[in-house]
Amino acid sequence: MIIYIAISLLIVLLLLAATVPVFQKFERLLVSFSFLIIWFIVSFSASVGPDYESYKFMYDSLNENFFLQEFLFRQLGFLFRTNDLPFSAFYFFLTSVYIYCIYRVFLRYRNLSVLNLLIFIIMPYGLIEGGFNYLRQNMAVALFYLSIVYLTRQQFFRYSAFNFLGFLFHKSALILIPLYFVIKTNLSIRRSFFIYFVVLGATLSLEVPFIKNSLLMVIGSIPGYGGTYANFRDGEFLNALSTKGIFSYVYQSIPIIVLMYYKKRVVITRNENVLFNITYLSLITLTIALELRIMLRVEYYFILAKVFTLPLLVRLCGNNRTRTVFLLALVLYFSLYFIAVYMTGVEKNLLPYKSVLGFEVN
Questions:
Q1: Closest to 292 measured CA to CA, from 211, 196, 183
Q2: Maximum CA pair distance of the chain?
Q3: What share of the chain is helix, strand, coil (3-state, %, to 5)?
Q4: Element holding 360 (H helix, E strand)
Q5: Residue 354 is inside which H or E element, if any?
Q6: End-to-end CA distance of the chain
Q7: Residue 218 contacts by C-beta under 8 Å, 6 or more apart in sequence?
Q8: Measured between alpha carbons, how far is 204 from 317 in angstroms, rounded to an integer?
Q9: Per-residue pLDDT tens for 234-275?
């Protein structure tokens, strides 16, 4: 726990320094140094995260499950394995590529660096929860956010090419291609809230056993992928969220709903509108996940957009003093998630932190 707080605090202090006029010209350098720290912590980790040992066993044994994985993940893993490289080398390669891609995305879309990076590190399924775990999907996520530049230029085929490449790491990335036509739209505030409440009502209707069981039968009948999720950990992904998950939903949804309400005042550019739409999809999928946890895997594609959209709320402030107070309030709000990390860190194998360099931090 200490290492995550220490790294977050160090990066916050570094990037707060970049807001001082005399240091502003060094902002990009400070951002690069911050990502260097992040890369070191993630790529040199060992046995951190709930999926690490599963991937390691699959890689070491080259078992049947390994050959069922997506094409590019499987081919890269096989290349490393046949050259007698340990799993730590394969893990290092994939996480390094992921962090570098996110760094490029960050340079393009950052608006308030200190808050951007803090949200990225500690938000639910952010760097701490996601960066160590989802090797395949992280590659697809990175390629999705690299493809956004082609969406804003309305270059559908280039956008699709990036996400098809992501599909070769994680099958679920295929849904991102048709979402091109959704993400580029400009939803009104009224319509956004209408769709949200319809989705919320439909989700709550799944409390009726007949409706939910019928939906689960449909999901389970999907060839290959549906059955995988229906049977995963005794149907864990198809269960409703726990009380802890509901608190997490409220915590995550409040700033997005505020952003929706003030959209006209804070969302200005075309890039910001695209990122807002992705953030909105995060809220929609998170809402459905109240009854179907499987949607958390879909929401994972949209989480990173919040890194760049939620800091836009600072534009509501009329002067530098209120801006500073509001910024610090947002830092405090997002830092509350450290409580969740503390409570679930051991369960999710995030604590203690272990490194291939031989040290361990509780």
A1: 211
A2: 64
A3: 75, 0, 25
A4: strand 360-361
A5: strand 353-354
A6: 6
A7: none
A8: 36
A9: 555 556 667 777 888 999 999 999 999 999 999 999 999 999
